[in-house]
Design a protein that fits this description.
209 residues; mainly alpha; Arc Repressor Mutant, subunit A; Tetracycline Repressor, domain 2; elongated
Length: 209
């Protein structure tokens, strides 16, 4: 996955068009906002007719749902696979998951999607609800289960798993905001992977018995 596309573009094959449409939609959602983006704008940016876009997506909400599934939902699926396959101490897996998230934030357009969700959810609650139901409601319980596993095995001290997971994820959310809001204003670029590694060490020390 590249910085400027949801999937690789450049082909006009029918099976490539959904990815080109999603890439164009994310461009416009990030530049103009969800409300100001029209389906014809997406079609023009994707190099298709408006009718061509409607063959794949009936409206803007469907575009946003597809972006969430394509990007954020895929990240949750990878994390779930790592959790389900893991055996042994939980700490190393938490470090792995944080570095994985950091690389997605560094190397893909995932931060742009997060920016759209944050900026549009107040005026358009359905935008936030799509992300809440498709990502947060799937990912947080997965990570909470990891914390509970560590507590049950004696690897971690007794903590509120729900609060611990929010503390675990918070620097990744900051990274997305920093990359999409602060850096364009001139802030120093953030080494997201280094932040994730340092945070993992600090976080796990805090959980130690």
């Amino acid at each position: 996955m590249t910085n400027r596309s949801v999937i690789k573009t450049g082909s006009r094959r029918p099976d490539a068009r959904p990815g080109e449409i999603l890439s164009a939609a994310l461009d416009l959602f990030a530049e103009r906002g969800f409300a100001a983006t029209r389906m014809e704008d997406v079609a023009r940016r994707a190099g298709l007719s408006k009718a061509g876009v409607y063959l794949y997506f009936p409206d803007k909400t469907a575009l946003l749902k597809a972006l969430v599934n394509e990007m954020a939902g895929a990240n949750v699926a990878v994390a779930r696979g790592l959790v389900e396959q893991h055996q042994g101490a939980v700490g190393p897996l938490i470090s792995t998951l944080l570095v994985f998230l950091a690389r997605q934030l560094r190397d893909t357009r995932f931060p742009e999607l997060i920016k759209v969700v944050i900026s549009e959810s107040r005026a358009y609650p359905d935008v936030g609800r799509i992300y809440l139901e498709g990502v947060i409601s799937q990912g947080l319980p997965l990570f909470e289960g990891l914390i509970c596993r560590g507590v049950a095995s004696g690897e971690f001290r007794e903590v509120d798993a729900g609060l611990a997971v929010k503390a675990m994820i918070a620097p990744m959310l900051l990274s997305a905001i920093w990359k999409t809001v602060m850096e364009p204003l001139g802030a120093e670029p953030l080494d997201i992977e280094a932040l994730a590694a340092q945070h993992a060490e600090t976080f796990l020390r805090g959980l130690a018995p």
